[in-house]
């Protein structure tokens, strides 16, 4: 763990402050990849004790998952999202820039065997990388009995450099899939995902579309993010944030709670450009 990253004690103190200000019903560990944090399962266990009624979720790229999944489940992790942008070995290596496709597949299989009540696969829509093979991802998710989430590319951080050439909308993706699977059955919204039921080969699978760009859902968003330095961000568009760690260290807990509540209640459709900071700094 990098020296500037927060200890379990610090993170738990900040989570407790947020829960005091705005009761947490779901806490997601994301990044980057949370699995690089030493003894992540121990932290999950501490969060479970702090938030016994909340859903604890994890988003991971899956590279280190197979070795940790059992301990995470036993520590109280409820649900998991695993990133998988392609089922083609060569394309995977081109996107991830690492030869670890088999490790990710091993992690997905291990997660399935561990019996999580919800397991989703996250796919960022990329026109020239997976835009012509989306049906293969739906097939894979069906075989794995996982829900698939197609996520529109966002022009944040390094993605801003290739956003114009690679952006593929949810509507375009849905149109591409229809010749393969027919018209899906709309299931409505669940969280931020517009969900559809695909039926084929006697099997069924649910596919969700996260329409961050084509149909923004900012008006319904209630998320708050704490980064690895202890800063709170109400939105991915935010450049600044709130230094919660400093307030905690100086004993200004009541002031922090007031500021957290204000940050939550004043959330609105963003009017600024996308931030240039990296997604790994504040999570997805």
Architecture overview:
There is one protein chain. 30% of the residues are buried. This protein has a domain at 117-223. The longest helix has 14 residues, at 8-21. By secondary structure, it is an alpha/beta fold. The chain has helices at 8-21, 40-50, 69-75, 89-96, 101-114, 134-144, 163-166, 170-181, 244-249, 253-265, 279-282, and strands at 26-29, 55-60, 79-83, 118-124, 147-151, 185-190, 193-200, 203-210, 225-226, 231-233, 242-243. Helices cover 37% and strands 20% of the residues.
- Helix-residue proportion: 25-40%
Ranges where pLDDT stays below 50 over 5 or more residues in a row are none
SS elements, strand count: 11
Mean pLDDT: 91
Instruction: Please work out how many helical segments DSSP would assign.
Output: 11
SS strand fraction? 15-25%
InterPro entries: Aldolase_TIM (IPR013785), MoaA_twitch (IPR010505), MoCo_biosynth_MoaA/MoaC (IPR050105), rSAM (IPR007197), rSAM_sf (IPR058240)
Cofactor: [4Fe-4S] cluster
Pfam families: Mob_synth_C, Radical_SAM
Protein name: Putative GTP cyclohydrolase subunit
């Amino acid at each position: 763990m990098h020296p500037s990253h927060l200890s379990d004690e610090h993170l738990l103190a900040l989570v407790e402050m947020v829960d005091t200000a705005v009761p947490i019903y779901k806490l997601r560990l994301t990044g980057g990849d949370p699995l690089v944090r030493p003894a992540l399962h121990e932290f999950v266990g501490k969060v479970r004790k702090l938030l016994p009624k909340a859903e604890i979720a994890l988003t991971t790229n899956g590279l280190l998952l197979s070795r940790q999944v059992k301990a995470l489940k036993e520590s109280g992790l409820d649900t998991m999202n695993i990133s998988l942008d392609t089922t083609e070995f060569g394309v995977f290596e081109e996107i991830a820039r690492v030869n670890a496709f088999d490790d990710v597949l091993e992690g997905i299989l291990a997660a399935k065997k561990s019996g999580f009540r919800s397991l989703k696969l996250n796919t960022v829509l990329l026109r020239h990388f997976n835009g012509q093979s989306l049906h293969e991802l739906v097939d894979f998710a069906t075989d794995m009995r996982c829900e698939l989430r197609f996520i529109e590319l966002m022009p944040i951080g390094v993605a801003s450099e290739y956003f114009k050439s690679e952006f593929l909308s949810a509507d375009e993706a849905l149109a591409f899939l229809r010749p393969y699977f027919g018209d899906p059955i709309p299931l409505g919204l669940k969280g931020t995902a517009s969900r559809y039921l695909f039926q084929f080969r006697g099997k069924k699978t649910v596919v969700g579309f996260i329409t961050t760009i084509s149909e923004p859902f900012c008006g319904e968003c209630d998320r708050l993010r704490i980064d690895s330095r202890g800063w709170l961000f109400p939105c991915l568009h935010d450049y600044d944030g709130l230094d919660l760690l400093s307030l905690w260290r100086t004993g200004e807990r009541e002031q922090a709670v007031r500021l957290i509540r204000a940050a939550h209640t004043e959330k609105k459709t963003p009017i600024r450009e996308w931030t240039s900071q990296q997604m790994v700094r504040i999570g997805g």
